[in-house]
Amino acid sequence: MSVSKGHVTGVNGNMVNVAFDGQVIKNEVGYISVGGTRLKSEIIRITDGIASMQVYEMTGGIKVGDEVDFTGEMLSVELGPGLLTQVFDGLQNPLPELAEKCGFFLERGVYVKPLPDKEWDFTPVKQVGDRLVAGDYFGTVPEGLFTHRITVPFTLQGEWKVKSIADKGMHRAHETVCVIEDSNGNTKDLSMIITQPVKVAIGGYQERVLPDEPMVTRIRVIDTFLPVAKGGTYCTPGPFGAGKTVLQHLTSKNADVDIVIIAACGERAGEVVEILKEFPELTDPKTGKSLMERTIIICNTSSMPVAAREASVYTAVTMAEYYRNMGLDVLLLADSTSRWAQAMREMSGRLEEIPGDEAFPAYLESRIAGFYERAGKVRLRDGSFGSVTIGGTVSPAGGNFEEPVTQATLKVVGAFHGLSRERSDARKYPAIDSLDSWSKYNGIIEKGKVEEAYSFLRRGNEVSQMMKVVGEEGTSLEDYIVYQKGEFIDSVYLQQNSFDPVDSMVSVDRQRLSFSVLYDILTSSFNLSVKKDVRAFFNELRQRFLDWNSTAESDSAFEERKNAVVSFYQERRK
Amino acid sequence: MQKVYTKIESIVGNVITVRAEGVRNQDLAEITTREGTGYANVIKLDGDKVSLQVFKGGQGVSTGDSVRFLGVPMRVSFSDDLLGRIFDGAGKPRDNGPELTENMIDIGGPSVNPSKRITPDKMIRTGIPMIDVFNTLVESQKLPIFSISGEPYNELLARIAMQADVDIIVLGGMGLKYDDYLFFRNQLEASGAMSRTIMFIHTASDPTVECTLVPDLSLAVAERFALQGKKVLVLLTDMTNFCDAEKEMAITMDQVPSNRGYPGDLYSTLASRYEKAVSFEGAGSVTILGVTTMPGDDVTHPVPDNTGYITEGQYYLRNGRIEPFGSLSRLKQNVNKSTRSDHRSLMDAMIKLYAAYKDSLEKRSMGFMMSDWDEKLLK
User: Fold this and answer.
1) Using the beta-carbon criterion (under 8 Å), do A11 and B259 form an inter-chain contact?
2) What residues of chain B lie within 8 A of the CB of A103, using their CB?
3) What is the per-residue pLDDT across A527-555, written as a single tens digit (0 to 9) for each?
4) Which residues contact A63 (CB under 8 A, 6 or more apart)?
5) Which residues contact residue B278 at a Cβ distance below 8 angstroms, ignoring those fewer than 6 apart?
6) Best to test chain B binding among A95, A104, A353 (most B CBs inside 10 Å)
7) Residue A151: CB partners within 8 Å, gap ≥ 6?
8) B232 has which bridge partners?
9) By the CB < 8 Å criterion, does A398 face chain B?
10) Residue A63 DSSP code
11) Which residues pair with A300 in a beta bridge?
12) Distance, CA of A344 to CA of A563 (rounded, Å)
């Protein structure tokens, strides 16, 4: 394919119009030469022989007539061993390396190779003459905790044969380790690194299957009441200050998955710094190694160029899919998808497209759906399973969930964890509003029992609304007990003490045990005849339950505190 | 060679269009009108049609006026001479001092590499108990003061400017009443804090375009001082005026408005300013305290709402004092342990007492029974 050239004919914000000779592809990447630097940009529209390109950098200093070199490639990422533990920007430039080169600031037009040319211990799994199609792997290297599969490009067409393959031993990442040949005698050299267009979902698996296994987050309200499945999707909308980011950080630490990819998209730089400084110090509860070993961070904070923000979520999900195809469970956390949607809105405005709701482009919903649909659990060709779970935060304007981004997201996700300002103001953690939220996945506890517990919450809430009007005196004893039970669930089970090392993360077994006791309390009726006694009984029971919650299983007092709860309520049982 | 263009094709609002070649995006141009010379910057290029935004506004510009492109983007002079000086939104002196043209630096520069940022852990003493005790201001933090018109937010800022334990204060005023400007000047001069202060002031009667330049000018200067190892505090008032100026310009440019007329890129616009707050490893820091007046005391208005998503907490200024409830400094836990050992318990205990007092007050006003404890609280 011939590679075209062009020149700038107009500039409007971060959009540049380019006249080109030869042919160009939509979404092709081109570089604009501005006084010695080359600015990366992508074609987003072609009209009347003019390509409109969004520039991933500031556009100051560009003038009409500046030269543009097209690459003939769509916006791509490099995939290969060495991705883990890295910190990239939205275009996969490793930030620490950029800092070494440029110092404090992100100079524009500086691009660094994403993957280091390190030596890896390569083990071939195919032999000369073996057949290969897109998505097959021909070798493995150990990468940290995982066996990294070296694959042929996912964009490969047709069937190819191995012509030669390197021996087991140390090889550099960029070195040719395999040569393949198709039936017409064309050959291709393959290294350990492949490139993949970010906006094209990675295939190369046998089939997609239903996500059925819960992803444990060690947060009770999520695992028990609002579960997320491995390969599922969920969203966390909430007003500012409700604790979206805190919740995601905790999930990224505790989730029982193999790899976590954090896409900090258009949020505060300070929050990313927190992860950067904190993660290397923390140990993964599952493996005992540093948390960083299972983490990739894609960070395009709010002050970095907007167009790259749009690309960053795709960069992240492409990496997630790549590791999924190695039979791993990957969790992608995107914070926040609203900023990503706003980046689309800015671009759409520059293109002078007809706006939809709140000036978001009309294709907002299909883009959001397209992104979340890249999650899923798949069966690979060798029979093993891999999954990509996507959790996105949404920052609705004014905390109003009726806005387009929240609504479009709710249509496509499998679970909705809505955060409420009231709960966060009352310092109730996590601030997930369990009455508004929902989940379509199966959790760690029987659905029927969870539903029953839920009904107490709902009825308790109804009674409390009523009580505001008629007062405590006007409420029947029966209703009052339901109300107390509802409050009880909230305070001993839904809320967690984030400062308590035991209560802040609760294992599945512990959740099952606590829930069985809770369930027993909810379904029992008690010998209580006056409201004063009811209140005193539940207050005492709550205190005992909370004491038990903060006791570690290994603690000698564990059984004793559990019995303090159980014996207390069983004595009063009818 | 710098060519002079004398054919202005259109004048819409503050935006003029001329046909010119070889002009670069965001370059500065000098425009000479009957009323003297002013600046304009390039905001759009389409073939040989160049759109410029005139700082002084489009009023009085003739189609025959001359436009000369300077070939450089908007810049501001940077040196120690800035200290104690007052400038307007175009960077021209507002006091009677000389114009500074040495060591010009670009404004609106690139953002800081997140991997070079450090975890903030030093407090800034402001001498205001409601800030220092309850919601400590931390170096490199960005915090808005949410307030409503009529509240003494400018008095608060002036007080902070005088008392804060920092090396340099940069005060950016946007859409200030002239009286407020004089108030700031007199207060700072009287207290002697002027010698460590630089002011960029846009008053309500100045051209709109200059309003949008004030944060950029202030922050560019602050950033340079920080790189020299100085502890800089940038005070911005009022960011709502800045957003309104952005709105006005976006609408004249025929941009599609998103929410209540504000441009769709409001979040990015604000974020690129606020994110300039940073602490440099081995050098100084920039801390931003900005006033955001909430139209109609509505925190869901696009300006405070977007601000809240960007900043690290907020102060609410109501009835002349900083509200202990709702106000939050997200970084306070980073520094509270190093001030004094009982800082946290003191803070919590006082807040609890105050909350209980509020409850008792409410109880009394509704005519409920009062306990001894309630009486004691109310004393």
Assistant:
1) no
2) 113, 116
3) 988 888 999 999 999 999 999 999 998 88
4) A8, A11, A34, B22, B23, B24, B25, B45
5) A269, B112, B117, B140, B223, B226, B285, B286
6) A104
7) A135, A136, A137, A138, A194, A204, A325
8) B168, B286
9) yes
10) B
11) A265
12) 57
Please, what are the domains in chain A? Answer: 5-74 (2.40.10.170), 116-192 (2.40.50.100), 207-439 (3.40.50.300), 447-571 (1.10.1140.10)
Mutate to test the interface with A, among B43, B45, B266 (most CBs of A within 10 A): B45
Would you write out chain B's pLDDT as a tens digit for each of its 379 residues? 467 888 899 998 889 999 998 899 989 999 998 888 888 989 999 999 999 999 888 888 999 899 999 888 888 999 999 999 999 988 889 988 898 888 899 888 888 888 888 888 888 998 888 888 888 899 999 999 999 988 999 999 999 999 999 999 999 999 999 999 999 999 999 998 899 999 999 999 998 889 999 999 999 999 999 999 999 999 999 899 999 999 998 888 888 888 888 988 888 899 999 999 998 888 899 999 999 999 888 888 999 989 988 998 899 998 888 888 778 888 887 777 777 777 877 877 887 788 778 777 877 777 766 677 777 777 7
Of B218, B225, B236, which Cα lies nearest the Cα of B284?
Answer: B225
Backbone angles phi, psi at A290, to 5 degrees: -65, 145
Q: Which of B115, B106, B109, B108 is nearest to B281 (CA)?
A: B115
Q: Give the chain B residue nearest A399 (alpha carbons).
A: B300
> B227 and A10 in contact by Cβ < 8 A?
no
DSSP A439: E
Measured distance CA(B323)–CA(B134) in Å, rounded: 10
Q: What is the ipTM for the molecules in this complex? A: 0.85
Q: A273–B117: do the CB atoms touch at under 8 Å?
A: yes
Are the C-beta atoms of residues B147 and B291 closer than 8 Å to each other?
yes
Q: If you ran DSSP here, which 8-state letter would residue A94 be given?
A: B
CA distance A394 to A492: 28
Most B CBs within 10 Å, among A87, A97, A268, to test the B interface: A268
Task: Examine residue B238 and say whether the peptide bond preceding it is cis (omega within 30 degrees of 0).
Answer: yes
With beta carbons under 8 A apart, name residues in chain B contacting A13.
Answer: 44
| C-alpha to C-alpha distance for B311 and A270, rounded to whole angstroms | 10
Question: Across the interface, which of A64, A277, A397 has its CB nearest the CB of B305?
Answer: A397
Looking at CA atoms only, how far is residue A349 from chain B in angstroms?
A: 6
A185 CB-near residues (< 8 Å, 6+ apart): none
By the 10 Å C-beta count (0-12 exposed, 13-18 middle, 19+ buried), A331 is classed as: buried
B45–A12 C-beta distance less than 8 A? yes
Chain B residue with CA closest to A272: the answer is B114
Write the DSSP symbol of residue A266.
S
Kindly report the average pLDDT of chain A as a whole number: 91
B127 to chain A, closest Cα gap in Å: 26
Choose the closest CB to A62 out of B25, B267, B328.
Answer: B25
Chain A residue with minimal CA distance to B328? A241
What is the arrangement of strands in the sheet containing A169-172, beginning at the earlier edge strand? A146-151, A137-143, A119-124, A169-172
Q: Whole-prediction pTM value?
A: 0.91
